[in-house]
Amino acid sequence: MTKHLDNHQKETNRLGDANVESPRLSHQARRAACLPRGLSSVTPLCVASGSGAELTDVHGRTYIDFAGGIGTCNVGHCAPPVVAAIREQSDRLIHACAHVALYPPYLDLVERLIDISPGSFPKKAMLVNSGAEAVENAVKIARAYTERAGIVCVEGAFHGRTLLGLSLTSRVSPYKQGFGPFCPEVHRIPYAYCYRCPYDRSFPSCHVYCANALERLFVTHVSAREIAALVIEPQLGEGGFVAPPPGYLERLREICEQHGILFIADEVQTGFGRTGALFAVEHSGVVPDLTLMAKSLAGGLPLGAVVGRADVMDAPSTGGLGSTFGGNPIACATALAVIDLVATGAFLDRARTIGRRISSHFSELQAAYPLIGDVRGMGAMIAMELVADPRTKAPVPEVTRTLVKACYERGLVILPAGVFGNVLRALPPLTITDSQLERAFAVLDEAFSVVARRI
Ligand code: PLP
User: Is the pLDDT of residue 50 over 60?
Assistant: First the structure.
């Protein structure tokens, strides 16, 4: 293990020494010259290729990938069935635009999504390019169906960077700052963030008191009759991998039903096996009216989907929905190959095993370092929250960034998250091997030993 770390360090030094005019610097310089600074990357990595759970940079150094393209690569980089589907479809048809003419991969995929998504009622599906576009369309559909304008979302939510997505998103810096005004008719309630309970209660004695904030919202802020939908992630993604306790989503669902409000599950980051179920909402037993998908749906190609109740999906009039590239044939063919891989018991079992291993390693680290205030998450969507002191829980975003850097320098790509930027999250491809997991853990151990104070 240490050997891998030593080799990685030696290789980094060799490349650094050998190149005064370092290609790495030159990539950085090209980036600074051409890209707006708002478009940032967590690492200085310039990737040449990817395979399974590894990335190789332009200098030939390999990294274990605990970021998985922020959850877009659940089936691994360049999974052979994905590559084959791309090759095959690109020989046949690259694009036609669904508004001009449909093609079999589009129809095959929507049928498949209807089949695998939550809910046994009649469903329909539409395809788009991204998570944000799925969110935008779901809100349009919900408004058309209910003839109401209001949308409820939660603290810590991330629903994209388009102006409506951003209006629903809940982190000021760097996402929202300077980009207002935002869309009206957006209302927010706290999430069930037990580690930082907004009501200072604890589960289970709280009886998910926080869910009742939705009912209070209808007394203090807005009439329930003006609310079209609740949009919610079954486990927060960018918001810090906060997994709600049992009963929370169920209670919200109940309140929505009482008031004719649609329940929209944003499964953009949680979907396609990440939490050990095909969709995270399945852990709760809640059946959403609409389910939103993107990220891992097409194994790294841009594709998103809105899937749900046929009567709701049919509310917008003919021509009211659309997207020039949405449901591109290559992305559809690829998504069909991805679903064949992920919708199997073996794939979901492996996701749960990976999650258990990550969770237990993070817990071992927590026992050694007071810096780790919380370890949490469902399935293989696991994170640790870093704090100055377990009692004060003061967030330490700068230490989190230092750890991300220390991991990168030792060959592990890992991302921060959380509204305070103090969460380290693991989103590895779910094809990661046991030995790659061990290498990742060795890097984490060493990074913590360098950066953090032991108990
Ligand atoms: N919804 C969730 C839960 C997400 O995590 C993201 C992206 O991280 C989005 C929506 C936006 O997706 P995209 O970046 O594809 O627009």
Answer: yes
